[in-house]
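Your task:
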Amino acid sequence: MDVFRQDVIVSFGIPLLDMSATVDTQFLNKYKLGANDSVQANKFQSALYDDAVNTYEVTYVAGGAAQNTIRVAQWLLGVPKATTLFGCIGKDKFGDILQGKAEQEGVCVCYERHKELATGRCAVLITDNNRCLCAEFAAAKAYSMNHLQQPENWQHIVQAQILYVTGYFLHSSPDCGKLLAESSGNKEGKKCCFNLSAPYICKEAMDRIKEIFPYIDILFGNEAEVKALGKELQLKNDCNTTQEIVFQVGQLLEKQRGKPCTVVITQGNKSTVLYHDSKLTEYPVVAVPPACIVDTCGAGDAFVGGFLAKLACGKDIAECIRCGHYAAGKMIQCQGIQIPKEKADFWT
């Protein structure tokens, strides 16, 4: 693969502006939030974003699962605009901040700017060692087919060597997700990669996931997600362990594709399970000292970013997984996905 050009990896996801601030308990009480809540904002809580900006020192980070993955891959590749991200944001100040943050890190952003809905935001409200997450998706779930099919946007899809779509995106924009998979899956010189994203996605979007099965070259997920997928697929009764489920899912994908596929499932600090060449392999995770671990929430996103960066360079699967572990290990040592200013030392 030619990594020294634009659009090597093109991704579709739900872009959010992460807004992190250290607050007091009175602020949480004001918006009826618990210290460790992880909730979707209701109408009353939608006022907290501007309130936080006016009251506290807020740090902004380009967030959302796909955007986190792309930012990590971009950092590892180091070639300006080697990665491209599609999604929908609002025509507002928060959208401007979000776009600016992603572009500062070298990502080519092709956001649709919604005329009515606000930019998706996630407030990260820190009190002592606690962290409350309050998300408002708004425009982030409103990506349209019209934007995708504009010639200047579709050209990115044509040029992509790796297409990465999250389950979140497929759930919110199913027709777009299906078209992307059909256009890129099983095409010479292209890899169609799909991330299950969350257990509830496997349940609520199962029909949509099945539609794109024949086009998936590489399936990503974690332990909980692949178990949810196995349940929805009604796999054999003796399919109980993660390894057994991964094997059965891989076999099913290959049957529907009529050609080999890859399934990569992470298990936190336990070994990553790989289905490749019709067999299972496990890759131990390099342990990070507990005292160095700050936040593990974005570990899965970072892992995929590392994996895709090496895949873009034409490396074998083992090397892709090793880079995924490296990226995840780096990112869990800070709050959220924070891209280091220095170049990645994995390559040296």
